């Protein structure tokens, strides 16, 4: 894999603005001042086992204490807090109820049509227990995988917590994925049950989730799935199979609201979450109980530092890791009020986000750069017309944020009154890895700043050696951390090879390769440059180019396909596909539409190509590898630079240029 610095970063590194934490922010922050951050970094470095061990004892409830903090004797397979027994739903619910917080609000939920629910910790606890008992009644026990394919409704969080209560790992599949994509994930994880809804609201439309589940399960295509549990949300008509299907509103309320939490080993699986890599098949990232819980809990506390009576809102969907760690587990483990919003800004309600902030008096707001860039484009008059004065901290996640968008966010949404935290992390890291701590670390627009305490991040070359300041390289993490993924479900070889053996330092140590390029400036600040592998980031959604290529090639008219990302002002990247057709197939508008629809059916609407270009041949090396670098330049209308001597047939390039 060659390292190709993007032009974007050249401008970013000349960014000279620095924003120090204000005295107000410093005085109200738990981690206040750079020295405090440095002390934490130093103590994590000098005695990591003590640092993480103390944190685990202080922040989590243990039914039985752990014996070792980290077992790294068989790298890259880490074991954290071995011997300990805990339960994530206990940490998120029982302990708060027992500590007198039962009447405090755990979840404020607002539905797309405007319906609102406020759920206290006590109520959430009881709902989770009932759901856990319902799952038991339909035969789910410890170790059985439960798939969720749900809209953004409280039942999604309830189901996740119910799974963790009985030790059944969950696998949440984003509701925007197609039935084909759902089927692959159900089969790969060997799910026993699917929890879904009749339908979900998405941009003024209804998506028929149950129909997609039926289609995924058709003809016994997922033989491990025995039952389907359905929440009634949109009340649309569904087909109901009495031998397999259960209504949530019939099964769950009838259960007892007492359910003892399963005593889980620290390393028992908590969930599997599929994400895209550089092969055609998404990988099931495995996270385990104690380490993940601690990491989601600690990072949430360090970065967002939510005070009593404050309201926190993350706009992600629970189908992604951001929803797992920062809508459900991080906030609830800390006993905070977390907002769940089913809607998204849409033409019929472009001010949806600002309305939610105004209505619920949100204090901490966490969203994606793509949303900020879209708002920026439509001007400040809309956000200016809302009362956003409750805000005190703004966060971004999911993709690089350009300095202009960062500044706009701070000025227009934060009214120059809120620190902005740009948080870098991944599905694999479980929680944030590089981010400002708002009371301690000065920010620079476009930089995720410094690694959190205990995280030894670096930028290295292909030999695994650290590169100089300002030089581009691969972003790596040099020590294990509690929230790290433990393996790829069913494919430990892939885990070892793609994350830990891609870069092998001479001393033989294991470093985690994130798949991102980065630079560090003279202050040691990290500037993330985006993926260096065949993964693209479209509106904060991570997609494998090979996944989209496989989808295209599975169409009868397509012979070959190559997919690349093209820089996009709002979405970060857009999808451009180069396609050669099978035999006598003719290029028509209808076929173009059909191909786009085919990708939507195979993967989901997030993977629909923005542009498809037909060509007679793809540029390949003599050994038959597609030269994506050339296609990337062509897609963005740039001059094809660099070495083309390995190109097998130079005419192909000329044709593509035309
Ligand atoms: O390329 C990085 C980008 O998103 C990738 C991880 O995607 P995913 O696993 O879907 O998780 C997204 C939510 C954590 C990374 O490899 N990314 C994430 N956050 C940032 C980012 N790129 C730049 N800056 C960020 N703050």
Describe the 3D structure:
Helix 5 packs parallel to helix 12 and helix 6 packs across helix 7. Strands 12-11-8-6-7-14-15-23 form an eight-stranded mixed β-sheet, sandwiched between helices. It is built from 21 helices and 30 strands. The two termini are 28 Å apart. The longest helix is centred in the first third of the chain and has 17 residues. Helix 16 links the parallel strand 19 and strand 20. It is of the alpha/beta class. The protein binds adenosine-5'-monophosphate-propyl ester. Adenosine-5'-monophosphate-propyl ester binds next to helix 12, strand 20, strand 24 and strand 25. The site of adenosine-5'-monophosphate-propyl ester (PRX) has 22 residues, from helix 12, strand 20, strand 24 and strand 25.
């Amino acid at each position: 894999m060659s390292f190709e610095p993007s032009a974007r970063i050249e401008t970013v590194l000349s960014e000279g603005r620095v924003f120090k934490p204000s005295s107000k922010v410093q005085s109200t922050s738990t981690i206040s001042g750079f020295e405090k951050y440095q002390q934490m970094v130093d103590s994590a470095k000098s005695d990591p086992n003590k640092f993480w061990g103390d944190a685990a004892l202080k922040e989590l409830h243990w039914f039985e204490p752990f014996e070792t903090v980290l077992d790294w004797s068989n790298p890259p397979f880490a074991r954290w807090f071995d011997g300990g027994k805990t339960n994530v739903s206990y940490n998120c619910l029982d302990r708060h109820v027992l500590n007198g917080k039962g009447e405090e609000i755990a979840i404020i939920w607002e539905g797309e049509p405007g319906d609102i629910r406020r759920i206290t910790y006590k109520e959430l606890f009881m709902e989770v227990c009932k759901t856990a008992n319902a799952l038991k009644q339909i035969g789910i026990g410890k170790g059985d995988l439960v798939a969720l394919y749900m809209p953004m409704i409280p039942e999604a969080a309830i189901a996740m917590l119910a799974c963790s209560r009985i030790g059944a790992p969950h696998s949440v599949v984003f509701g925007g994925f197609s039935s084909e994509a759902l089927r692959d994930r159900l089969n790969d994880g060997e799910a026993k049950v699917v929890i879904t809804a009749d339908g979900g609201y998405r941009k003024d439309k209804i998506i028929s989730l149950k129909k997609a589940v039926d289609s995924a399960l058709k003809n016994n295509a997922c033989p491990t799935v025995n039952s389907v549990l359905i929440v009634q949300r949109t009340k649309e008509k569904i087909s109901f199979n009495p031998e397999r299907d259960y209504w949530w509103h019939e099964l769950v309320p009838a259960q007892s609201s007492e359910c003892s939490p399963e005593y889980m080993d620290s390393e028992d699986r908590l969930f599997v979450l599929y994400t895209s890599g550089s092969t055609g098949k998404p990988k099931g990232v495995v996270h385990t109980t104690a380490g993940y819980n601690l990491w989601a809990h600690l990072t949430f506390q360090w970065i967002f530092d939510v005070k009593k009576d404050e309201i926190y809102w993350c706009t992600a969907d629970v189908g992604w890791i951001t929803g797992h760690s920062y809508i459900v587990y991080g906030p609830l483990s800390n006993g905070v009020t977390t907002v769940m919003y089913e809607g998204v800004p849409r033409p019929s309600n472009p001010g949806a986000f600002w309305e939610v902030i105004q209505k619920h008096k949100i204090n901490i707001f966490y969203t994606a750069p793509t949303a900020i860039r879209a708002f920026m484009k439509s001007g400040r008059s809309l956000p200016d017309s809302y009362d956003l004065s409750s805000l005190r901290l703004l966060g971004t996640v999911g993709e690089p944020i350009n300095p202009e968008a960062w500044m706009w966010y701070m000025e227009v949404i934060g009214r120059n009154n809120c620190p902005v935290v740009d948080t870098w992390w991944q599905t694999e890291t479980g929680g944030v890895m590089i981010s400002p701590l708002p009371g301690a670390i000065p920010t620079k627009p476009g930089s995720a700043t410094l690694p959190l305490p205990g995280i030894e991040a670096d930028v290295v070359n292909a030999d695994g050696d650290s590169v100089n300041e300002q030089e581009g390289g691969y972003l790596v993490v040099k020590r294990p951390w509690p929230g790290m993924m433990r393996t790829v479900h069913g494919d430990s070889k892939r885990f070892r090879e793609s994350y830990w053996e891609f870069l092998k330092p001479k001393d033989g140590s294991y470093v985690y390769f994130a798949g991102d390029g980065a630079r560090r400036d003279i202050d040691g600040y990290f500037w993330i440059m985006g993926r260096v592998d065949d993964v693209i980031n479209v509106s904060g959604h991570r997609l494998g180019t090979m996944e989209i290529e496989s989808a295209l090639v599975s169409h009868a008219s397509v012979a070959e396909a190559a997919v690349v990302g093209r820089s996009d002002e709002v979405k970060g990247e857009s999808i451009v596909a180069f396609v050669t057709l099978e035999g006598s197939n003719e290029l028509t508008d209808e076929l173009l539409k059909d191909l786009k629809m085919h990708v939507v059916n195979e993967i989901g609407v997030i993977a629909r190509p923005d542009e498809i270009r037909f060509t007679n041949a793809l540029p390949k090396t003599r050994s038959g590898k597609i030269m994506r670098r050339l296609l990337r330049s062509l897609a963005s209308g740039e001059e094809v630079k660099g070495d083309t001597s390995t190109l097998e047939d130079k005419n192909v390039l000329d044709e593509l240029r035309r």
